Amino acid sequence: MAGNERRRSDEVADAATFMISVAAELAGMHAQTLRTYDRLGLVTPQRTRGGGRRYSNRDVEMLREIQRLSQDEGVNLAGIKRIIELSDEVEALHKRVDDLVHQLEHATRARHGELVPVPRTNALVVWQPRSKRTR
Length: 135
Hints:
Keywords: Coiled coil, DNA-binding. InterPro entries: DNA-bd_dom_put_sf, MerR-type_HTH_dom, MerR_fam. This is MerR family transcriptional regulator. It comes from Gordonia phthalatica. It holds the Pfam family MerR_1. By secondary structure, this protein is mainly α. Helix 2 crosses helix 4. It has 2 domains: about 80 residues, Multidrug-efflux Transporter Regulator, Chain: A, Domain 2; about 35 residues. It has a 3-stranded antiparallel sheet. The relative contact order is 0.10. About 60% of the residues lie in helices and about 5% in strands.
């Protein structure tokens, strides 16, 4: 997925839309479980001015993933928290790679006329420092 498309998709997924009872129903959990996960830092929803929790589509997907890891894989909450942290790091690194690829493509286009093609060859080049050269 291109960088711009990924960013737009992320913005839609991050939009806070569901109050806690709706998010709990969508995730197949009790609202108290969502409060516990919020307190533990597993899923931290956005807050309204009055302090009410607002869950995004991404939050609901994360709640489902937590439930799957806990019930199907037998991972405890500390393990789930670590998995989430590592997943966030991987996502951030993917975004960084996308940015670097974009910068490289831009720089390559800018320097296109300056590069000289070098023919492929099977020749062997042996390099020696000047101090050890034999004459």
